[in-house]
Design goal:
Length: 451
């Protein structure tokens, strides 16, 4: 009887687990978007030193704040780059290595009321430590930040110069989400991916409003790895309940198992998250997180995209898929993946278009590759399967993007490469582009050449 009851319980659990975790496909290039669209990149402005992000303030579609990796935030106003920057913190940003510098700028969701915004960058004086600092706009001039208003919100030491992540974004819940890479070198030498005691290799979630003056931020009470004090007892707790406790986990963690989430975005309509996780040697991936789903494991370093890591190579130095076909898969699988063989080497997410101007783009997530200049769209078809379609093959080296309140998507592109000049100011200048359907390209504008 007892065995039968256990078997019934196991069967019930299996059913409920599969109901809670619907399986989805992992799309590869070659699919067709449910809403067919042809797109072009229209140049907005050039002359930027390694631009990596574009930010726009809530309710304001007219001003583009461009993050230059060297630590300068330039302002494009009514299509013209302003002479004076919005913010210049180059004397505290280290940018001599390609993956370091000013990463991102985000405006507080209530910016129109409180004038607060946030930058994330690699700090020069703290050996590349990630800093997230709050500033306020000048009370006298909306085109200028107040440099004296700096308040350090968050800092996180980086063991190596690479895999810093960098993206910050406010979720639909008003909390700040932070992309943090695995700490660097290659192959997750620190074992950070599956380690809940480190902030490396994660998406973090914090409240930028501290609850006490001696802290830079506070922890949202429903973060997934907080252990409530009431549960810290060793007796009278079921094994199942113990299994859910992570007494050493960092409470800032939202999700884990990410290699280098340099970009991620929220769908402005649904609140779902798309993570462009940069892969190693063989595959790039896009992860999808339904709104509010906490504590997800995206698999690194057990997995790179849908493939076990490390991948054994065959006699011709190609991944030996036969050797790993029965290997266990760990964590949530991506919705899209592509190979380094002919598709690129560093995935860059741009965002989900949501707007009234271009209905044929609505609901599609757009992303590209830094190495190949290809640009894809992905969305679910009528059956619920993810489709991934190549839309452009450019010569641009994509670095990031940004989205306007009206849904318009922007793309940044720089010419910098590994092994380039130690002073990024010596790099060829990059530009900001706007993603539009080809039949909506404004007359007299420059369009990115495609192959
Ligand atoms: Ca951002």
């Amino acid at each position: 009887m007892k065995t039968k009851a256990l078997l019934a319980l196991a069967a019930a659990l299996a059913v409920s687990a599969s109901a809670a975790e619907p399986k989805h496909n992992t799309a590869v290039s070659g699919g067709k978007l449910p809403k067919p669209v042809k797109v072009a990149l229209v140049k907005v402005a050039g002359g930027f030193v390694d631009p990596v992000r574009v930010s726009l303030a809530p309710g304001d579609n007219s001003r583009l704040f461009v993050c230059e990796r060297t630590g300068v935030v330039r302002l494009i106003k009514e299509g013209k780059v302003q002479d004076k920057p919005f913010l210049d913190i180059h004397d505290t940003v280290v940018s001599s290595f390609l993956e370091q510098g000013l990463y991102d700028l985000e405006f507080h969701p209530k910016y129109t009321e409180n004038g607060k915004f946030y930058v994330s960058y690699s700090d020069m004086w703290f050996n590349g430590t990630t800093f997230i600092v709050e500033y306020q706009v000048s009370k006298k001039n909306p085109d200028r930040a107040d440099p004296e208003s700096a308040r350090v919100v968050f800092q996180m030491p980086r063991p190596y110069a690479n895999h810093n992540g960098g993206e910050i974004a406010f979720g639909p819940d008003g909390y700040m989400y932070i992309g943090s890479g695995d700490g660097g070198w290659e192959g997750d030498v620190l074992g950070a991916g599956q380690d809940l005691t480190t902030l490396l290799s994660k998406i973090l979630r914090i409240d930028v409003n501290p609850t006490s003056a001696d802290r830079g931020y506070s922890i949202p009470k429903d973060n997934p790895f907080i252990t409530p004090g009431s549960q810290m007892k060793l007796f009278g707790v079921t094994e199942e309940a113990f299994n859910k406790l992570h007494p050493n986990a960092r409470p800032e963690i939202w999700s884990f198992g990410l290699r280098n989430p340099w970009t991620f975005q929220f769908d402005p309509k649904t609140g779902d998250m798309y993570i462009a996780d940069v892969g190693q040697n063989h595959y790039e991936e896009i992860d999808f997180e339904p709104k509010g789903k906490a504590g997800v494991n995206y698999g690194w370093k057990f997995m790179c995209a849908t493939h076990p890591f490390p991948l054994p190579l065959d006699a011709s130095s190609k991944p030996d898929m036969e050797a790993v076909k029965d290997a266990p898969r760990v964590g949530e699988m991506p919705i899209c993946e592509y190979s380094h063989v002919d598709q690129g080497n560093c995935v860059i997410g741009f965002g989900v278009y949501r707007g009234t101007k271009f209905p044929q783009m609505d609901g599609t997530y757009f992303f590209g590759d830094w190495g190949s200049g290809k640009l894809w769209g992905t969305a679910r078809d009528a059956k619920g399967d993810w489709q991934m379609e190549e839309l452009l093959n450019t010569k641009l080296m994509f670095t990031g993007g940004g989205q306007a309140p009206d849904g318009t998507l922007y793309v940044t592109e720089a010419k910098a490469n590994y092994g380039g000049p130690a002073d990024p100011a010596q790099n060829e200048r990059g530009a900001v582009w706007m993603l539009v359907p080809t039949d909506k390209v404004p007359a007299g504008t420059e369009v990115a050449p495609v192959e």
